[in-house]
Amino acid sequence: MKSHLKYYRKRAGLSQEQLASKTKFSVSTVASMENGRRDGSVDTIISMASFFGVTVDELLFGPNDSNSTNKQPEEVS
Questions:
Q1: What pLDDT is stored for residue 75 in this prediction?
Q2: How far apart are CA 59 and CA 6, in angstroms?
Q3: Is the pLDDT of residue 62 over 80?
Q4: Mean pLDDT of all residues in the chain?
Q5: How far apart are CA 44 and CA 34, in angstroms?
Q6: Residue 55: helix, strand or coil by DSSP?
Q7: Half-sphere exposure for 69 (CA within 13 Å, toward CB)
Q8: CA distance 36 to 42
Q9: Contact 65, 71 (CB under 8 A)
Q10: Given CA atoms 35, 17, 40, 55 in this order, what sign does their dihedral have?
Q11: What angle do CA 28, 31, 32 make, to 5 degrees?
Q12: Are the CB atoms for 29 and 39 separated by under 8 Å?
């Protein structure tokens, strides 16, 4: 399952390396989760959600929007 980790990382203005350093996860873990090659353990997902101040649901499925439950986050460039 591809998470919305990249969206939240870019919104925070962090590179993969910076996020890995701040969360104590490897760059390969961050990259693999962003690319959908790795889901991440429950503990990893909870830690990432906590780091960004979002729920696990938001990290996995995108930001909550009261107008649409299936709305995808806008890509942050």
A1: 53
A2: 10
A3: yes
A4: 85
A5: 13
A6: coil
A7: 1
A8: 15
A9: yes
A10: negative
A11: 80
A12: no
